[in-house]
Amino acid sequence: MASNTEPLLDADFLKKLERLSIVPRRAFSGRMKGEKRSPKRGTSIEFADYREYVSGDDLRYVDWKAYARLERVFLKLFVEEEDLSIHLLVDASQSMVFGKPFTKFDYARKVAAALGYVGLIRYDRIGVTGFSQALGRRIPALRGRPAVPQLFEYLQTLQPGGGTNLGKALQNYVLRAPSPGVCVVLSDFFDPTWEAGVRALLGRRFQVILLQILDPKEVEPDLLGDLRLVDAETGESREISITPNLLTRYKDALERFCGSLSDMANRHGMDYVRTTTDAPFEDLLLKTLRGAGLLRS
Question: What pTM was estimated for this model as a whole?
Answer without folding.
Answer: 0.81
